Structures are given as C-alpha cells and as structure tokens.
Amino acid sequence: MKQITEGIYEVGALNPAMRVFDIVMETDYGTSYNSYLVKGREKTALIDVCHRSFFGPYLANIREVCDPKSIDYIVLNHNEPDHTGALAELLPELGEVTIYTSQAGSIYIKAITNRQDLNIHVVKDGETLDLGGKTLRFLSAPFLHWPDSIFTYLPEDKVVFTCDFLGAHYAEPYLFDYNVTYLEKYSKAFRGYYDAIFGPFKKYVRAGLEKLDQLDFDMVLPSHGPVLTTDTLLETAIARYRTWSASVQREKKLVPVFYTSAYGNTKQLAVEVMQGVRSRQDVEVRLCDIIDYPMAEMRALLNECDAFAIGTPTINRDAVPPVWELLAGMDAINSAKRPCVVFGSYGWSGEGCPNVAARLQSLKCSLLEEPLRVTFVPTQEDLEKARALGVRLGEAI
Ligand code: FEO
Q1: 265-278 vs 380-395: helix axis angle to the nearest 10?
Q2: What is the pLDDT along the chain (397 residues), one digit of tens a residue?
Q3: Cβ < 6 Å from ligand 1: which residues?
Q4: In this structure, which residue's CA is closest to atom 1 in ligand 1?
Q5: If residue 151 lies in a helix (H) or strand (E), which one and from where to where?
Q6: If you measure from the C-alpha of residue 179 to the centroid of ligand 1, how many angstroms do you get, rounded to a whole number?
Q7: Are 150 and 197 in contact (CB under 8 A)?
Q8: For residue 164, which atom of ligand 1 is closest to its CA?
Q9: How many beta carbons lie within 10 A of that of residue 345, not counting itself?
Q10: What's this model's pTM, rounded to 2 decimal places?
Q11: Which ligand 1 atom sits closest to the C-alpha of 145?
Q12: Ligand 1: which residue has its CA nearest to atom 3?
C-alpha cells in the first residue's frame, strides 16, 4: 500500500515478471495493476480492481487502509480483466457495494464475474458522486481503449484516474514518476504501450486529451505504471500522446505495392502494378519487397496508406510466410474499406492469391476484384493486365 495524498491510496499489485501482455504485446519491464482507494468523510470508493492472479496481496493491501466491508463503491473505469479479474473473489470480502461503470462496462462485468445480481449504477458523462469532501466526476472516454472506458476526476485533489490512458507496462517498486530509476526503459515502455493499446484509436486519443484539457489537475493516476505528476513526467506524457495521435496530413496519397518473389515473376507483376498506379500524378507509390525491410516498417506502411497491392507467390499451396506476417500486423479497426488488389505468379495450383484475398475480405478491406494470377513467367499480356490493375487501384482511391 502507498499513500498518494490525504485520503487517496494505491493498493494494487506489481507483476515484475510479466513478459507478454494480451498474448501479443511484449513487456520487457513487467507491469503494475494499480488500484486506488479514495476515502471521503462519509464514503469510501475503490477505483479499478486488479488481475485475479494477484488477489491475495491485493486484498492485504486494501486491509492496510481499511476494512474491506467499509468500501461503499467500486468504480470500474475499464473492465478488461487485468483490472476486474479479481472482483469476483473480492466481492465476498465486501459489504453492500454499488459498482459505478459505463453502460458497456455494466454488460462486460456481469460476464466477467458471471454474476447477474451485481448492484450496478451506470454512469452518465459528467455525473458526480460525493464521498464527503471528495467528489468523483465520471467522464465518458470511449475506445480508450474499449467501448466501456471512462475517466474519473477528483477536483478537490486535482487528480484524474485514467486507467490505461497514459499508463505503461512498467514495474518498479515506486509509485511516483519522480522516483522512476530507469527513465529510458520507462520511456520505451510508455511508447510501446501507446503503440499497442492506443495506436488504433488515435481519433479517440485526441478526444481524450481534449477532455483532460478541460480539467484542472496536477496528477494522473493510471492503472499501469507510475503516477504522473506536474513538473515531472505528466506534461511530457501528454505532449507525447498529442504528437503520436496527431492526424497525418500528406500532399499525396500513399500506395505501397508489397510483394515478395522467389524467381522474379511476382516481382515483374509488382513493377507493372506500381507503374499503373503511378499513372496518377497525385499518388506516391512505394514498391517494397517485404523481406528487404523491417517488418515493423512494412506494417506501419500498410496501416497508414490510402490503398495497397499485395503480390505473393504460392509455396506448398499457400501464400508465403512473410506475406502472412505482414497481414498479421494489419490494424483491422482502421483498415476497413481501404482499396486493395492481389496478384502473384505460381507454378502448380496457385492458392496463395485467393487465400490472401479471402483474408483481406475478412478484414473488411475493399478488394477491388479477383486476384491477378499468372502461371510461372508473365507474358506480355500478363504484364499489361498487371499495369491495368495498378491503374484501377489508383483510380479507386
Ligand atoms: Fe489494462 Fe485495457 O486493460
């Protein structure tokens, strides 16, 4: 347990050994599941809970501050199980509690606890809850990073509880940013966290920052990583979110032509597709052999482009692994309706192209037409078809 200020305590748990979060996110520095107890003159609220694996130390931390039965409210800013997984086990330790969460959160938490009998109050944007000298104000913050997300503002203490927003998977046994020992590592964790969690939700990040701009606060209390304080890391953290979430304005539309090629046949098609797209003057085309570049760079290009083409050979009745690796990094949330085409050379049965096409359709991309498939070496006619395909891709932007 650590005290933040008069009547506010952090009671969560550290998980320094965690190396992967949510299956796909590498976490070199572990994490913390921050949970906050706020004691007003009359009422006590617990803000966010904890991962179920850490229930034991979590409960002990709560007991250091108060009798769990004295908790009146639980505020769930966000219901992902790293913040709610311990709730089912915690509830029998508590007395009568009311759970404050969003409409979406009210649905999720019933399924997470497998309890339909929870006493839930669905909060409205701007609604307040008086604890006695401490007022909790709930602010809608959808898609930061789930539909259920809210912020909780406590004006008397000038603090905002933001759950994942401005957080980081980073575990040091210190609570405040001014005590962070390895600043460079924290900075890296903060960036990685933003990219993985908030990268697909830039528009909502901007909206969240606008909400914060309207508040008078000097501490952000996230549910992962250190508390951010004024004149230490708070301003920098907000500025970094502002920079990373800014909408990119380009003079030209961007169209990458991704391909990889065993014997140069798919490459020949790729060059023609590129020339076809280039017939449109206001487009910047980038021809990329996927295996020649860092995959992160290729994925970033895929996710920020206006349209794209993918060329793949067929090996063992499928597209080749680098193509699948590229598509595995596609931001499915923001790629819907993006124009695309598929092409490739094959020797036997040619499943690579249709398999990639099916994947793009399942991601809701706008596949303009059936893939252009060529057996072995493209003929002049094949090359002309590839160029025409590029022209149509350019026209579809
Ligand atoms: Fe830390 Fe989205 O949960």
Answers
A1: 40
A2: 899 999 999 999 999 999 998 887 889 999 999 999 999 999 999 999 999 999 999 999 999 999 999 999 999 999 999 999 999 999 999 999 999 999 999 999 999 999 999 999 999 999 999 999 999 999 999 999 999 999 999 999 999 999 999 999 999 999 999 999 999 999 999 999 999 999 989 999 999 999 999 999 999 999 999 999 999 999 999 999 999 999 888 899 999 999 999 999 999 999 999 999 999 999 999 999 999 999 989 998 999 999 999 999 999 999 999 999 999 999 988 899 999 999 999 999 999 999 999 999 999 999 999 999 999 999 999 999 999 999 999 999 9
A3: 78, 80, 82-83, 145, 164, 223-224
A4: 164
A5: strand 150-154
A6: 23
A7: no
A8: 1
A9: 29
A10: 0.88
A11: 2
A12: 80
Return the H-helix or E-strand segment holding 150: strand 150-154
- DSSP-derived pairing of the beta strands 253-259 and 283-289: parallel
Distance 115 CA to ligand 1 centre (A): 21
Ligand 1 atom 2, closest CA: 80
How much distance in Å is there from the Cα of 9 to the middle of ligand 1?
20
**Cα 113 from Cα 104, distance rounded (Å):** 15
Measure 80 CA to ligand 1 centroid, in angstroms: 5
* DSSP one-letter string for 26-60: E-TT-EEE--EEEE-SS-EEEES---GGGHHHHHH
- Residue from 313, 312, 285 nearest 301 by CA: 285
Q: How far apart are CA 47 and CA 131, in angstroms?
A: 13
Strand partners, 270: none
Atom of ligand 1 nearest to the CA of 163: 1
Cα–ligand 1 centroid distance for 45 (angstroms):
20
* CA 153–ligand 1 middle distance (angstroms): 19
